[in-house]
Structure formats: structure tokens, C-alpha cells
């Protein structure tokens, strides 16, 4: 008998279209020209003020009356002041202190803002109302005037300047984090963690905060620019660090008479350029971070 063989069936595999690779956060950031400029410039300034004094053959307080009031040259790249002190050495020394104060003040403000924003956003109700009204009170005050008043009352010093700057820098962080937490606390993953018995503290720290901190990094970069300006204004008004300690604002204050009466343009030009570059670069960094965060959200959706 002839066997009738069943027809062979062919398995046709349909190839699934490959998913387009999502661009990474850093690639989205690096795609922006201003963001690249800001990051490279700010990093270069940090390296310059941190390591520059090692390579400068003069100390910030080294007096040389035979070289006083000299214009920029190969020996003194940024010129000298009325006592023959090297302006480059003083700019680098002052920049290290100005940027350090700004970074610490912003870090303190971020911590306070995160705590206030997390509590207000998570618990809501009267707690939210009280904390946000306190933030409104701080917003309504003329910040620079009150900072000047605080420093004048407490006395100029490292701790008092940081306290005064950070006291009026936490509100934006608190509001941004509060808004993020209000939208996240009802998410499925938060409700699942709550159902598994997670405490309020664990829900905030382990589940909500890691997903709500992205806008905070943008606020932090912009806060650095504001802190640098505030510290420079205090030093310019004589309420910051006192002579002979150099800061960028203090160098601008010292340069007033020399520029107007003596024509020593370099005395105010170089500290002013450094302040300008720091503020410009951190603003570009903040803008780049914001674009990268929004770009990641668009690709995920």
C-alpha cells in the first residue's frame, strides 16, 4: 500500500521591526552646542581655580612695589595692582573661594528644598499649605536686601555668607519637587509599594524621590549662577570676605578707583570676565539638562 504523506507545513516567521535605540541622556545633552560650551567652560574654570595657583609663580599676597600698576605682560599675564600683587594669582585665589561658597550654599539650599518639597507634596493638606505659605513669604522678600541685612547683623564670614545665600535659594527647589511628588504619589508603583507595607519614609526616599529629582539638577545649576552673583555683590559692597582675602566681587570693588583715575582697565576686566563666564556657562548647562530631560521623556512616550 502506498503511504500518503501529509503535506509538510512551513513555519513562516515574521520579523518584528527593530526598536529604534533610545538616545542616552548624555548624548541628548551633548547634542546642544551651548550645553557643550557651558560644560567645557565651567569644567575649565574649576580646574583653573583649583590647580592654577600651583603653576602661577606668584602668591596672591606677594607685594612687589617695583612692579605696581603694570599692564598685562608675559610676566604678569593679568597685570598687577597698586601694590604690585599679581592679578592672575588673586583672580584664581578669589575664584576658588567664590565658587566654593556658591557650591556649598546651593547644596544647603537643595537639601532644605528637597526636605520641604517632599513633605509638602507627599502629605498634602494643611502641611502643604503651611509650608507653601512659608515659601511665599520668602519669595515676597527682597532677597538681596535681606541677605545684605543678615550679613551686616551676623557679621561677614564664611558661615554667615552661606547661611544668608541659602536662606533665599531653597524655595524653587521645594516647589519643583512638590509638583513632581503630587503627580507621582498616586502612581501604580507607589501604590504597589504601599500595599506591600512600605512606610512613608521608604516610599518617599526609595520610590518617589529617585523619579522626581530630575528638575532639581536644573534648579541647582541656575542656583549656582545666582549664588555667585550674590556673593560677588556682598564682597563688592564690603560685606563679604574682608581684605586681604581676594574674591571676584572684592577685586571689582578694589578696581573702581584704579580703573577710573588710573586707567588700569585690567583690574576690573579680568574678574568681571570670570564672573560672566561662570554665570553664562552654568546657565547653558541648566538649559542643556532641561532639554535632555524633556528629550528623554519624549522618546519614552
From TrEMBL:
Q: Report one GO cellular component.
A: plasma membrane
For this UniProt record, give its keywords in alphabetical order, as a comma-separated list.
Cell membrane, Membrane, Transmembrane, Transmembrane helix, Transport
Q: Which residues form the ABC transmembrane type-1 domain?
A: 95-286
Predominant localisation class: membrane
Localization per record: Cell membrane
- Name the membrane topology term: Multi-pass membrane protein
Source organism, top-level taxon: Bacteria
Report the transmembrane regions from the record: 37-58, 97-123, 143-168, 204-229, 265-286
Q: Which Pfam families match?
A: BPD_transp_1, OppC_N
Q: Which InterPro entries match?
A: BP-dependent_transpt_permease, MetI-like, MetI-like_sf, OppC_N
The record's comment on protein family reads: Belongs to the binding-protein-dependent transport system permease family.
Q: What name has this protein been given in UniProt?
A: ABC transmembrane type-1 domain-containing protein
Q: Which organism is it from?
A: Leucobacter massiliensis
**Which lineage?**
Bacteria, Bacillati, Actinomycetota, Actinomycetes, Micrococcales
Amino acid at each position: 500500500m502506498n503511504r500518503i504523506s501529509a503535506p509538510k507545513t512551513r513555519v513562516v516567521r515574521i520579523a518584528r521591526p527593530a526598536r529604534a535605540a533610545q538616545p542616552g541622556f548624555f548624548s541628548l545633552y551633548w547634542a546642544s552646542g551651548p550645553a557643550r560650551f557651558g560644560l567645557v567652560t565651567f569644567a575649565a574654570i574649576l580646574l583653573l581655580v583649583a590647580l592654577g595657583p600651583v603653576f602661577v609663580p606668584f602668591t596672591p599676597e606677594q607685594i612687589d612695589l617695583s612692579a605696581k600698576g603694570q599692564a598685562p605682560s608675559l610676566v604678569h599675564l593679568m597685570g598687577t595692582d597698586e601694590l604690585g600683587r599679581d592679578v592672575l594669582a588673586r583672580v584664581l585665589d578669589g575664584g576658588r573661594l567664590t565658587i566654593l561658597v556658591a557650591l556649598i550654599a546651593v547644596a544647603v539650599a537643595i537639601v532644605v528644598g528637597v526636605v520641604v518639597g517632599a513633605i509638602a507634596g507627599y502629605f498634602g493638606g494643611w502641611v502643604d499649605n503651611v509650608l507653601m505659605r512659608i515659601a511665599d513669604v520668602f519669595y515676597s522678600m527682597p532677597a538681596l536686601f535681606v541677605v545684605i541685612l543678615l550679613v551686616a547683623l551676623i557679621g561677614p564670614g564664611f558661615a554667615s555668607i552661606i547661611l544668608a545665600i541659602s536662606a533665599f535659594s531653597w524655595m524653587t527647589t521645594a516647589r519643583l519637587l512638590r509638583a513632581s511628588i503630587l503627580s507621582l504619589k498616586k502612581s501604580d508603583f507607589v501604590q504597589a509599594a504601599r500595599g506591600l507595607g512600605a512606610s512613608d519614609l521608604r516610599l518617599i526616599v526609595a520610590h518617589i524621590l529617585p523619579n522626581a529629582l530630575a528638575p532639581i539638577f536644573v534648579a541647582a545649576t541656575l542656583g549656582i549662577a545666582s549664588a555667585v552673583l550674590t556673593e560677588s555683590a556682598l564682597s563688592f559692597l564690603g560685606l563679604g570676605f574682608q581684605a586681604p582675602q581676594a574674591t571676584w566681587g572684592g577685586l571689582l570693588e578694589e578696581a573702581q578707583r584704579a580703573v577710573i583715575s588710573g586707567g588700569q582697565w585690567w583690574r576690573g576686566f579680568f574678574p568681571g570676565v570670570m564672573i560672566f563666564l561662570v554665570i553664562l556657562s552654568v546657565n547653558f548647562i541648566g538649559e542643556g539638562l532641561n532639554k535632555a530631560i524633556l528629550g528623554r521623556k519624549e522618546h519614552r512616550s
